[in-house]
Amino acid sequence: MQKWRDALHQAASVCGWHFIPGSEYEYKFIGEIVEDVLEKITHEEIDEFRKVSNDFLEEIFDDLEEDCDDLEDGAKEIFDDLKEGVKEIFDDLEEGCDDLEEGAKEIFDNLKEGVKEIFDDLEEGCDDLEDGAKEIFDDLEEGVKGIFLNIAGFFDS
C-alpha cells in the first residue's frame, strides 16, 4: 500500500500542464502541448521511432501473412478431408441402397413364388376335394342324391 501512496505522491508532484475547465478551449490547450513536445524531440529521434515502428509493423504483417497462409492451407486441408469423407459416405450409401434393392427384389421374388405355390396347392386341394365330393356323391343312392341336391339348392338361393 505504501508503494501506491508513494507513486501517487510522485505523480502529483510533477510539474507540467494543467487544464482549468472554462479558462480556454481544450483543443487550444492540446495544441500547445503538442507544439511543446515537438520542440523537445529531435528529427533524428522521430526518424528512429519511425524506423523502429515500421520494422515492428513489417514484422507483425509478415507474421500475420504467414499465419493467414497457414490458416488457409489448414482450411483447405480440412475442406478436402471433409469432401473425401462425404464422398465415401455417399458411396457407402449408394452401395447400401443397391444391396437393399437386391435384397428387397429377392424377398419379393421369394414371396411371389411362395404365394404361387400356396395358390397351386390350394387349387390342387380344391380339385382333390371336388373329386372326392364327386366320388362320394356318385356312391350315394339316388334318393339320398335328391336330398343333397335340394339342400345345395337351398344354400344357393
UniProtKB/TrEMBL annotation:
UniProt KW keywords: Coiled coil
InterPro entries according to UniProt: Toll_tir_struct_dom_sf
Coiled coil: 54-81
Name this protein carries in UniProt: Heat-shock protein
Gene source species: Trifolium medium
